[in-house]
Write a structure and sequence with these properties.
mainly beta, Jelly Rolls
Length: 151
C-alpha cells in the first residue's frame, strides 16, 4: 500500500488491508518493506475508554506507527518543531476498522488521543525503539503551551 502524505509535515496515513475470511478477518499492520518502516523497537496495545483522553506526549527519538483494530480513536497532533512547515498547526484524524489506516508520526510532534467508539477502543503502536522514559516529554491535557480546545 502506498502511504499518503498528509498536510502535516512528516506524518503519513497509510491505508491498510483487511482480508475477510470465513473464520475471521486478517488485519495488516506494518511490513519491514513498507516506506514508513524505520526499525522495530517494540509493539504494544493501549486501551482508551469512551470519552477519555490520553496525552500530550512528544517523543524525541521514537517513530510511532499507530493502528486501531478495535473501536474508534481520535488523534490530535501539534507541531512545535522549529524548522517545520507546519509549526504551530494541529492535525486531527480518526482511526478505526472502518477507516483502517496506519498513522505514522515522526519524533518531535505532540500527540494526544481520545476514545470515540461506544465500546472498547484499542490502538496498536509499532514503535521504532523500545520504551525509554527519558526520550519523551509529557504535558497535561489542559496546559498553557498547547492551546487546543477539546470538544
Amino acid at each position: 500500500m502506498d502511504s499518503l502524505v498528509t498536510s502535516f509535515e512528516g506524518v503519513l496515513l497509510t491505508p491498510l488491508k483487511i482480508i475477510p475470511t470465513d473464520n475471521g478477518n486478517v488485519l495488516h499492520a506494518l511490513k519491514a518493506t513498507d516506506p514508513a518502516f524505520v526499525s522495530f523497537g517494540e509493539a504494544y496495545f493501549s486501551n482508551v475508554l469512551t470519552g477519555k483522553r490520553k496525552g500530550w506526549k512528544k517523543h524525541t527519538r521514537m517513530v510511532l506507527n499507530l493502528i486501531v483494530p478495535v473501536g474508534e480513536i481520535g488523534f490530535v497532533l501539534f507541531d512545535d518543531r522549529v524548522n517545520s512547515l507546519t509549526k504551530g498547526n494541529f492535525f486531527e484524524c480518526t482511526l478505526s476498522p472502518h477507516s483502517y489506516q496506519r498513522l505514522t508520526i515522526p519524533p518531535g510532534i505532540w500527540t494526544a488521543f481520545y476514545g470515540k467508539g461506544q465500546s472498547e477502543n484499542m490502538l496498536l503502536n509499532i514503535a521504532s525503539i523500545p520504551h525509554d522514559p527519558t526520550e519523551a516529554e509529557n504535558l497535561p491535557l489542559e496546559n498553557d503551551y498547547i492551546k487546543y480546545t477539546w470538544t
